[in-house]
Amino acid sequence: MTASSHTLDDDRPPRVRGAFDASTWKEIAYLLSNLPVALIGFVYTVVMVAAMGGLSVTAVGLPLLACGLWGARRLGKSERARARALLGVRVDEPTPLPGPERSGGFFPWLWTGIKDAVAWRTVLYALVRLPWAVLTFSIALVGLFVLWPVLPWLARGMAQVDRAMVRGLLSPSDGLERRIAELESGRGVVVDTAAADLRRIERDLHDGAQARLVALAMGLGLAKEKLLEDPDAAAAMVDEAHGEVKIALQELRDLARGIHPAVLTDRGLDAALSSLASRCVVPVKVAVDLPGRPAAAIEGIAYFVVSELLQNVSKHARATGASVEVWRTAGRSAGRSTGRGAGRGAGRLLIRVSDDGRGGADPLAGGGSGMAGLAERVGAVDGVFVVDSPEGGGTVVTADLPWRDREA
Fold this sequence. Notes:
This protein is α+β, with helices and mostly antiparallel strands and about 400 residues long. About 65% of the residues lie in helices and about 10% in strands. Helix 9 crosses helix 14 (about 370-380).
């Protein structure tokens, strides 16, 4: 074969000999495999589109279309794997579609599958690939027998076009799908957190103030009955009820403070965090340096984070002192997140709570509560939550939240 004589020819230029390296052979293998792979994708796509178009007026048409697009996603995944193995193209995998249980039911899941941009781009890829695959297969095959000296350069040029097609049609849209998934996950965290807070409030009301008020009503009823028979006993019971009223009011104040303290609404983070520090069992230094007030939602999360962290200091840290620092900075988030969000935007609200206690805090402990719960809350608004807590070295927790201006 002519190709053999060229391969064994010691007089050929080194440039031609060096061109046939492992990468070149992989590119040639990719080009030769283009035709059978493209034929499979083209036939699948044409049959799917034709069949689903004909059945779209029936009850099974849309579910079958969603299934067909799911198959297109699988074709795209195999094509990315082939390009990765033979062309060295590193393309991120798109975010998997959520199942019916995460989509909110069958019909939302069906609609998500039908409007899946990743699958539709794969369909477009399969349709435009066939003519190009025929051309590249033909040139690569002829090149093996006729155009051997220039085959490496032909293969590289055609492989570059394939790389561009894979990146353009089979890669996520600049991370858009991943970003949407992050936001949907963050929305789920917010919903779950709100539901947990409502359950906590209901439990506190039921077990605390409500039970105390029921007992108070019964006591006042007994006092009313004894008012004429035994005035002294009635007066004692009324006095006891008065004490119960004070306790119930204090419980309601504590509950309201846990929801959203009035001092935060009226005077902002500086006063609210100082109030938190005054209730901590260890001395706490508070330093707040803000040019204004952030949006109410961000301000509330900041307050909640500091509140929970100071409670941890009181209960677990065995510290002799702590500090709370809050300031605004321009730039991206600092540190590595234990949550999901990454820093975006120019303005950031930085919170640092540190203590000189025993350390060893686990940032993943507590599931939906504790440090993990705080990380989820911060991550849900595109923030970062970092815990530095070596054994015996104290704990430093940094929360990095996006700064959003407060509406007038």
